[in-house]
UniProtKB/TrEMBL annotation:
<dbReference type="GO" id="GO:0004360">
    <property type="term" value="F:glutamine-fructose-6-phosphate transaminase (isomerizing) activity"/>
</dbReference>
<keyword id="KW-0808">Transferase</keyword>
<keyword id="KW-0677">Repeat</keyword>
<feature type="domain" description="SIS">
    <location>
        <begin position="217"/>
        <end position="358"/>
    </location>
</feature>
<comment type="function">
    <text>Catalyzes the first step in hexosamine metabolism, converting fructose-6P into glucosamine-6P using glutamine as a nitrogen source.</text>
</comment>
<comment type="subunit">
    <text>Homodimer.</text>
</comment>
<keyword id="KW-0315">Glutamine amidotransferase</keyword>
<keyword id="KW-0032">Aminotransferase</keyword>
<keyword id="KW-0963">Cytoplasm</keyword>
<protein>
    <recommendedName>
        <fullName>Glutamine--fructose-6-phosphate aminotransferase [isomerizing]</fullName>
        <ecNumber>2.6.1.16</ecNumber>
    </recommendedName>
</protein>
<feature type="domain" description="SIS">
    <location>
        <begin position="42"/>
        <end position="182"/>
    </location>
</feature>
<feature type="active site" description="For Fru-6P isomerization activity">
    <location>
        <position position="363"/>
    </location>
</feature>
Length: 368
């Protein structure tokens, strides 16, 4: 039941601190990931992994895009990420030592399953499935599995399923780094990320406590027809996910761009009728992002920035800022997802749409 919540989506957004800690439960030591969480054969398979192909659809695909930044940076493994409906109809080249990874909340998405079945004919060293539904087709047909433990997700718009996928993918990154000889991640840095994972629950709670401020911000969007989401690095996929949430439940046209692409086209769209949303965590791309935001401001674009409290981005004319608590850089994509979910939710409620059951969409896409 929805309990005290008006919609399942809101309830599921609020469940995130709890399900994120469920996703971590029993899978970490003080210094690293327990690789056996992925199954008894995982350590041997990860040690042999030279490349990774990640296949998924929709929100799960966005989780895969975040993971690419993590896996290449921390585990030092080249990664390709692709939507299942494209992958299944091309003739992919599979280099030796490639691990196939699928991400799916339901484990029943037709294209993702078809991609997995196709991949089995292509010479991968194995298939890892990251999934939320035990006993689903995806789980049954994968060699290794990691359950995301988000619990049932009723709202069509995926929220807690996404953030728990990110947790699972960070565990995968750390496990892979541990099993490989030359991973870039030092033992010290690994310990820091593990410690940061253990503080995720209270930090997510702090972000959810910003809900009424986000609700106030949402009023600026209710009458708009278009929005632009900007992010850099691992926050580019977070911008994509923010835009997907807004379009699917509020029916407002939303596009996401890597902030560095602005000048290559989308800047032409920016005017006072096109709000621009950006996530600005404290990472080494911050200065570049700040100058992209100035470019938007100079064209009269109204900016909404979710920024780390320490980065020195403050509200001014045409720029509204919501400060988020500081978090280890590696985990920022997870945290910055939450305000974007709440923003879409409140915009949709203002517009009076059917939040849990948006038009034309089904929770589980079991046909092509
Ligand atoms: O169950 P799956 O994760 O395989 O579903 C994939 C997409 O259909 C799904 O993520 C969809 O994009 C979301 N409901 C959007 O919020």
């Amino acid at each position: 039941s929805k309990g005290e919540y008006r919609h399942f989506m809101l309830k599921e957004i609020y469940e995130q601190p709890a399900v994120i800690s469920a996703a971590l439960e029993g899978r970490l030591s003080d210094t690293g990931v327990l690789v056996e969480s992925f199954g008894p054969e995982a350590a041997a398979l990860f040690a042999r992994t030279r490349q990774i192909h990640i296949i998924a659809c929709g929100t799960s695909y966005h989780a895969g895009l975040v993971a690419r930044y993590w896996l290449e940076r921390y585990a030092g493994v080249p990664v390709q990420v692709e939507v299942a409906s494209e992958y299944r109809y091309r003739y992919p080249v599979v280099p030796e030592g490639t691990l196939f990874v699928t991400l799916s909340q339901s484990g029943e998405t037709a294209d993702t399953l078809a991609a997995l079945r196709y991949a089995k004919t292509l010479g991968y060293i194995g298939a890892l499935g990251i999934c939320n539904v035990p006993g689903s087709s995806l789980v049954r047909e994968s060699d290794l599995t990691l359950m995301t433990r988000a619990g049932p997700e009723i709202g069509v718009a995926s929220t807690k399923a996404f953030t728990t996928q990110l947790v699972a993918l960070m565990l995968f990154t750390l496990a892979l780094a541990k099993c490989r000889d030359k991973a870039p991640l030092s033992a010290d840095e690994q310990t820091k990320i593990v410690q940061a994972l253990k503080t995720l629950m209270p930090i997510c709670q702090q972000v959810l406590a910003l809900d009424s401020e986000i609700e106030t911000l949402s009023q600026a969007f209710a009458e708009k027809h278009h929005t632009l989401f900007l992010g850099r690095g691992a926050h580019y996929p977070i911008a994509l996910e923010g835009a997907l949430k807004l379009k699917e439940i509020s029916y407002i046209h939303a596009e996401a761009y890597p902030a560095g692409e602005l000048k290559h086209g989308p800047l032409a769209l920016v005017d006072s009728e096109m709000p621009v949303i950006s996530v600005a965590p404290n990472d080494d791309l911050l200065e570049k992002l700040k100058s992209n935001l100035q470019e938007v401001r100079a064209r009269g674009g109204e900016l909404f920035v979710f920024a780390d409290e320490n980065v020195g981005i403050h509200a001014q004319d045409g720029i509204q800022v919501l400060h988020l608590p500081h978090i280890h850089e590696a985990l920022a994509p997870l945290l910055y997802t939450l305000p974007l979910q709440l923003l879409s939710y409140h915009v949709a409620v203002l517009r009076g749409t059917d939040v849990d059951q948006p038009r034309n969409l089904a929770k589980s896409v079991t046909v092509e």
